[in-house]
Amino acid sequence: MAVGLPIASDGRGYSGKMTSFVILSCTVAATGGIIFGYDIGISGGVTSMVPFLEKFFPDVYTKMKQDTEISNYCKFDSQLLTTFTSSLYIAGLVASFFASSVTRAFGRKPSILVGGVAFLIGAALGGAALNIYMLILGRVLLGVGVGFANQSVPLYLSEMAPPRYRGAINNGFQLCVGIGVLSANLINFGTEKINGGWGWRISLAMAAVPASMLTLGAFFLPETPNSIIQHTKDHHKAKLMLQRIRGTNDVQPELEDLIEASNISNSIKHPFKNILQRKYRPQLVMAIAIPFFQQFTGINVISFYAPILFLTIGLGESASLLSAVMIGVVGTTSTFISMLIVDKLGRRVLFISGGIQMLFSQIVIGSIMAAQLGDHGEISKKYAYLILLLICIYVSGFAWSWGPLGWLVPSEIFPLEIRSAAQSVTVAVNFLFTFIVAQTFLTMLCHFKFGTFFFFAGWVVVMTGFVYLLLPETKNVPIEQMDKVWKEHLFWKRIVGDMSESRKIVLP
To answer: Which residues, 6+ apart, have CB-to-CB distance to 273 below 8 Å?
Structure first.
């Protein structure tokens, strides 16, 4: 059933329409982003709640409330507290490699299902936690769920999407991440006001809602044509699915590309070994560099610790949580804007413009904190709200550039034969450096103080230059013909072969 968005011929003659079947399937799959975003948002909120700190982190509570000698920047410096946040990501890192084997052997759908179930169990443990061990075990299981979901969902979305709308559909994953963050911030704002000090339990347990949506939805998801060909070799079944998702019977050119890619994929027995070959060098560099840079934008400083940061600059507990809600609204809105323009303006324009926006806001935030916030006392409310505004500008820049594109670009550039393995590398690198940033930020804030923002600003300069020099434009290029962009790129063609070895792409 088509919904009337015609697709002009792409690549070697792909045709079809944006169908309601694709929209519904991708909407269900993209809820995997909600569980990821909910976890990001919920941890920072509950760690700023007094009853939660009193129960699980009494030393931090004592420093925050009673120690008048300690620096503003060091009140929350606790390795145990950061372990609560970061343990999820080390678990996700390990789980992503198991997810690669499941995705390659059984398809995208089983990985999504495993992710939902693991997250559901982790949510139950977190909400019922009686001690720090239950709390962190719950976080580890949440990490397993996120590892499986983040490995499989972006691949699923990119494989289901028509080339012309792949950016918008894949950015739906990041939109759901933003919705998850916003939902978590709203819930934290509400549960903080519950008398009796048990509101944090609701915050942690409510992660079961998006996990249930993903788990139940996964039972009804269709497999992608790529996965059907790869696992069953049933070309007729794959053709019928391709006709259904494209809304047309004219799918032969795309089907032939999928079959060719599958034949190459099935001839490779060790994808993690093969990804090291010279011909895959550009994809391997991007699989490592893009998630690395995404974390060193400093976004998780804001996502994890926004309420704590606002407490540091002098806002009250409730005002800090409300400020985090405002940031969630800005981020979600900006990601939606990215969905509308990513396939028109392209990936490079958004990467570069978002980098400039983040750089400006980080430098000004660091300068204000250097001039106005000392080791003791509070910053004036005027400057506190100015910092809040600048953080919103920063989050907006991230949310239409490195946020969604950090997942979109890696998921669309890998050949089928290394796609599952390469996506696992992307997820693992993302989680590794998320873990490092989450584990070290509060200590960095204590020692670097306002210089923390200049540190991340420096990385934004590096990553923006990287995109400008080394990332080719990938908009509208069919996913199974993506290898051509490297052969036509000024730098990468020296490594993977001259563009004369293959036909040029004519972009619509």
So the answer is: none
